[in-house]
């Protein structure tokens, strides 16, 4: 009788321990996607489809399977101004075709949001809280895409440093498709330098620049593979690549100084100047 009771207790304890053990993945990845008004609807649709297709792509699934655990955790969040963050697909463990398709289908069916202003700092701070998710991993990565600088909220460098101190890596996808003429007042020609010097950082951080709408989906797929596989990206010197090629740039690669090459508060200054002009 006592043996039976002891066995039952041990089985219950083992079951409780199993339930309490968090799932372990190779990387927890937040896809933080800009849906501010500076991006037109066609660009937003192209961007969304790029993520849908990338998650389903055989090369991405193969990269997942090659990991130590053979699975990753991903969530998809749209963002714009301060406090304007919307989770479209909650944390999902992807380990095979079925789980990848389930994630992609949910993302594909969700409506595309459009919201005002651009607060990279707000999405970075918000993203850091999302890692309290009951999942364990070797790496935690926030992948930020956008077509403009921070223009409201906490200074982007302060938010970046806060996130980096938590051991989180920030990667970037600066979208530089528009020309000066088509982009409007808030266009920043040096957005790639801004992202490299003011936004990305942490272990293995990198960004991929996109200058051609036709290459956006390719860039998204390539970026996901690099993030999942934790591969140090190979840099192609500018003279050996066409302008339309998505350029992979590791954090700190282009700058040999501790001082940013661009004003990290340029977006806030653009906005303040615009407001003064608007009053006239």
UniProtKB/TrEMBL annotation:
The record, for SUPFAM superfamilies, names: vWA-like
Signal peptide interval? 1-20
A family per Pfam: DUF1194
Keyword list (alphabetical) reads: Signal
Q: In which domain of life is the source organism classified? A: Bacteria
The name this protein goes by in its record: DUF1194 domain-containing protein
* Organism (species): Acuticoccus mangrovi
């Amino acid at each position: 009788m006592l043996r039976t009771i002891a066995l039952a207790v041990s089985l219950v304890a083992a079951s409780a321990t199993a339930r309490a053990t968090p799932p372990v993945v190779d990387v927890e990845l937040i896809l933080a996607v800009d849906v501010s008004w500076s991006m037109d609807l066609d660009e937003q649709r192209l961007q969304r489809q790029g993520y849908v297709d990338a998650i389903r792509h055989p090369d991405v699934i193969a990269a997942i399977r090659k990991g130590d655990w053979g699975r990753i955790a991903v969530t998809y969040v749209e963002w714009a101004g301060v406090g304007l963050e919307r989770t479209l697909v909650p944390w999902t463990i992807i380990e095979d075709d079925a789980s990848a398709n389930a994630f992609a289908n949910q993302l594909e069916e969700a409506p595309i949001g459009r919201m005002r202003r651009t607060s990279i700092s707000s999405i970075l701070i918000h993203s850091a809280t999302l890692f309290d998710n009951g999942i364990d991993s070797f790496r935690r990565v926030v992948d930020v895409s956008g077509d403009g600088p921070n223009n409201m909220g906490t200074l982007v460098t302060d938010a970046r440093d806060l996130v980096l101190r938590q051991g989180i890596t920030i990667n970037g996808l600066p979208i530089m498709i528009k020309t000066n003429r088509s982009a409007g007042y808030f266009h920043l020609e040096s957005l790639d330098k801004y992202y490299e010097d003011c936004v990305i950082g942490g272990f293995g951080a990198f960004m991929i620049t996109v200058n051609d709408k036709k290459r956006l989906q390719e860039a998204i797929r390539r970026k996901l593979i690099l993030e999942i596989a934790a591969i140090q990206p190979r840099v192609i010197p500018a003279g050996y690549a066409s302008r339309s090629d998505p350029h992979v740039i590791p954090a700190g690669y282009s700058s040999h100084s501790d001082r940013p090459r661009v004003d990290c508060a340029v977006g806030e200054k653009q906005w303040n100047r615009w407001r003064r002009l608007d009053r006239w």
